[in-house]
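Human: You know discrete backbone vocabularies at least as well as I do. Show me how you would write down a chain together with its backbone fold. No explanation is needed for now; the record alone will do.

Assistant:
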Amino acid sequence: MTDKEFLKQSKKYAEPFCITNGGKFKLKQIDPEETLGLDTEDKAEAKEMLERGVELLSKLQDELYAHDRWAILLIFQAMDAAGKDGAIKHVLSGVNPQGCEVTSFKAPSAEELDHDYLWRCAKRLPERGRIGVFNRSYYEETLVVRVHPEYLESQRLPDVQTKKPSKQAKQKDLWKQRFENINNFERYLTNNGTVILKFFLHVSKEEQQKRFLARIDDPAKNWKFSMKDVKEREHWEEYMHAYEQTVRQTATDYAPWYVVPADTKWFTRLVVASAIVQRLSALDLSYPKLSQVELAELKTARQALLDSTRIN
């Protein structure tokens, strides 16, 4: 399969899940079990295509690094056990480590809480020519914090007193402000050469249960499981509402969301790889062309190297 053939075929896997205008988006529009007609008999073919996508991504990343004009920011959000780690591992397996950095954001530290909520993520933004991957991100502030508004108390925000009678009205204004802040932040980044792709790996509650049970039953995966994961399942509907609102309010043409079905891991990875390759190929990347003076210098250097070999 040529690069051109892959790009043509991968388009059909990326486009159905790309949200650029979230105004009318409903989470129920995306079935977590969706595979666009592919079944277990197509698994080998899909994996082969993923491998081709990884190869093409490696080539595009090399050109991105040499071009040194754009930065790529990939944001992954999901419920626990949706497959973020696996998707990042498989899709970026062929990328040169020198040109890529993965940052996982956990609960904020005391130092981070002394700053605005974008601060810790802004520090980890990729440089030009590089790919930055956020495993969770500033979107936790419209997801986890929305489901657990008590976390706002530790942020010591002005005019946000979660225990007062007017807390619901104030929190509604807060989420609106945060959506506006994030949209402005992402607009600023894109205006300055950062390409942003955001992935919500949409797993079903039933599939999450299966994966949790697998972690409990497999000693090699016990370390991945936490009782906190079970407690968070009690807030499933609240999380789905928070994700829907987040996509609705922050899906834009300059920073789109990909709401990716996550019940079938190999399909999830194919969609993610397809989306990234599609976007990078649209940048029309290429290796820098040298000037006539620089080419002449190369010719001189080549001759000097050949002459030194003859002397030795």
